[in-house]
Amino acid sequence: MLTVVIVIHLMIVLSLIGVVLLQKSEGGGLGMGGGGAGGFLTSRGTANILTRTTAILAMCFFATSLILSILAGLDRKPRSIVTPASSPSAPAAPGSTPLAPPGGLLDTLRGGPPEPAAPGAPGAPAAPAEPQVPR
What we know:
Strand content: under 5%
Number of helices: 3
Radius of gyration: 33 Å
Number of strands: 0
């Protein structure tokens, strides 16, 4: 469904660009002098047809834009930035650290900074011993 609406939307966009470019400039903006086609599509009836076509294509463009935005929002689900991401379905490898602490971000912040691990505790990185230099 989404692909069909996108294709229709693109066809409307291309048609709208073509119809707008076919219209005669009435203000002579930027000194271009009202079009250089030398009488091509200059009758008043043609101008009315192009104006109506532009209005109809603009309404269709607006409608397809709304439809596309509604279709894009259907799959969107609300989510919280405070709770951690859902854990992966496969169990973590032994010895690996979890991606997010349990309890969420707010619980982690309420608890204060993490306590440093004891030097001999398992899992704590062991720092190399500094050599004692006699003085």
